[in-house]
Amino acid sequence: MALKHHIDYKIRYNQQVDNSASYVLPFIEKTMPLGKGKNVLEVGTGEGGVLLPFMDKGCFCVGVDLAPERIDIANEMLATEIADKKVEFLCQNIYDHAFFGRFKNYFDVIILKDVIEHVYEQEKFIPYLKTLLRPGGQIFFGFPPWYMPFGGHQQVCRTKLASVLPYYHILPRFLHKAILKLSGEEDAIIKDMMDIKDTQISIERFERIIKQSGLKVLNKQHYLINPIYKFKFGLNPRKQWAPITYIPYVRDFLTTCVYYTVG
Question: What are the contacts of 132-135 at 24+ separation with CB within 8 A?
Answer without folding.
Answer: 132/41, 132/94, 132/100, 132/103, 132/104, 132/105, 132/106, 132/107, 133/105, 133/107, 133/108, 133/263, 134/39, 134/105, 134/106, 134/107, 134/108, 135/105
